[in-house]
Amino acid sequence: MQQKEKWGSKIGFILASAGSAIGIGAIWKLPYVAATAGGGAFFLLFLVITLFVVMPILIAEFIIGRSSGGDAILAYKTLAPNTKWDLLGKLGVIGASILFSFYSVVGGWIITYLFKALSMSLAGAKQAELLQEFSNTTANPYLSLGATFIFILLNVLVINRGVVSGIEKMSKFMMPALFILFLVLIIRSLTLDGAMSGVQFFLKPDFTHMTANTILITLGQAFFSLSVGISVMVTYSSYLDKSVSLPQSAISVALMNVGVSLLAGLAIFPAAFSFGITPDAGPGLLFVILPSIFNQLPFGTLFFVIFLLLFLFAALTSSFSMLEATVAPIMSSGVSRKKASTWMGILIMIMAVPSALSFGVWNDIHIFGLTFFEFADYLVSNIILPIGALFISIFVGYRLPRQLLQDEFTASSHFGKKMFIIWLFIIKYIAPIAIIFVFLSATGILKLF
């Protein structure tokens, strides 16, 4: 049974799609990578690669979804019947499931720390004390599992309500709120003594860092920041009508993603440098470094709560798309949305258990030298995402009819045939080569040569 739901508005689709792309990594990883890889020079390169290499694949996923009107699996069955191309959609659904399972663990940490901050239990704590607190929190199996399940449940409740009443409604609230909260933090951060040193560290162009390795890092970061490759955007665009321009929507999503990373850097680095701290990337930034900074500010707990809410919104809008991508194929077989989302929610909760326990009782269990959490992250980020993006490029560039592609690309758009030809050239030749380099680098194969 083909899903008949539609987005209520163009802005709803754009905000939901941007929310899907703007995840935790855009806030705790990308700003740090930028600051240590050339600052303004990195962002210029990142913007160019995002717009001219990665965004074309995002448009490709949009085209697959809207032209077929199907979910991540049904779309390929519709566009390439009696072939094995639906395996690409199945890979995407598996990837989204695994990604959601370990992503929910981090979402649970955010919820836990939100309660800790509101209860003032972190107020006045030094960095060493906060590091121990984070270690104790993540190692506690009951706390970790409980918070992870709550995060998954929040997603299930939203997906239960459908595309318009659930995903779109929450995205219309959370995405503007995210930007407003960022602006509050940036204003406070920039008014601190020594704040400009942090801005300079973050944004000063340093072209001496523009080595071949930096370009490769930037390329990989651009691919993974838009989450192309697991067909979540195929699912989202299947609810879209012909009145929306796909290229213009993709540009909006890409620019909002870059914009959030810029805002994150402007909120974090000035405050960090004001107190003589160089922030690292990863969970330690959110749960150790930032609380230690906010504890030194007047009304610091309030600002930390704001930052946690901001992270929670980013995490939720991103995870909505992961769960929806796994629920839609089940609905296509005739199962109701509520049953499908509940079943998948329970399955994801089971899948999340190993990752949630990776920091405590199962910390000594390894797969290829990695904990369950690390292995799930590596599997999705370094293998499933690049392979999915590569075959999406091949599918659109070489399998779909040229006329179908042109009709979808130019529908309700200012982009004409010339822009379509450029886009198609990128999809057929540039993107696959770039993805192969990212894949070989991420898996370590490139180092062998």
Task: Give an overview of the whole structure.
It contains 19 helices and no strands. The chain is mainly α and 449 residues long. Helix 4 (40-68) crosses helix 18 (402-410). The protein has one domain: Up-down Bundle (Amino acid/polyamine transporter I), CATH 1.20.1740. The model has no long low-confidence stretch (mean pLDDT 89).
Runs in which pLDDT lies below 50 for 5 or more consecutive residues are: none
Radius of gyration over alpha carbons?
A: 21 Å
Task: Give the overall form.
Answer: globular
- CATH fold annotation: Amino acid/polyamine transporter I
Tell me the number of helical segments per DSSP (H or I, 4 or more residues long).
19
Element order: H for helix, E for strand:
HHHHHHHHHHHHHHHHHHH
Kindly estimate the percentage of residues that lie in beta strands according to DSSP: under 5%
Largest sheet: none
Instruction: Return the CATH architecture.
Output: Up-down Bundle
Tell me the total number of β-strands. 0
Kindly state the percentage of residues in helix. over 70%
Q: What is the CATH C level class, in words?
A: Mainly Alpha
* Tally of structural domains: 1
> How far apart are the first and last residues' alpha carbons, in Å?
49 Å
Q: What do the pLDDT scores average to?
A: 89
Structural class: mainly alpha
Membrane topology: Multi-pass membrane protein
Subcellular location: Membrane
Transmembrane segments: 12-30, 42-64, 91-115, 142-164, 176-203, 215-239, 251-277, 297-323, 343-363, 383-400, 420-446
Main location: membrane
